[in-house]
Amino acid sequence: MRKTSYTPVTIGLGLLKDDTTLLARRAYQSLMDGPRLIWADDAGRVYSSDCEDPGADIPACWIAGTFAFGQPIQAIEEDLRALRSERSKDWIID
User: Fold this and answer.
1) Which of 1-5, 41-45, 53-57 shows the lowest per-residue confidence on average (mean pLDDT)?
2) Nearest to 10 by CA among 42, 45, 44
3) What is the three-class DSSP state of 6?
4) How far is 59 from 33, CA to CA, in rounded Å?
5) 29 vs 57, 60, 69, 88, 91, CA distance in Å?
């Protein structure tokens, strides 16, 4: 039997600087298809991917968390807010 490669499905949700309530709602809607990894790249673009274990593909500092449908939307919002807060330290120029 031949193995088929799997390519994760990734959905763009917006920017990390956007309203976290709106981003959390978009992330929550993406959970309808199963557990998703919510993360933001170096440019602050927020994504939802169906890979629960990012391995070496996504640096740990980019990850807000892995969520499943039924979890409180507030948990997603809090984790996005924490990620933005951590990233904002890098954005501030002395």
Assistant:
1) 1-5
2) 45
3) coil
4) 24
5) 24, 23, 8, 26, 29
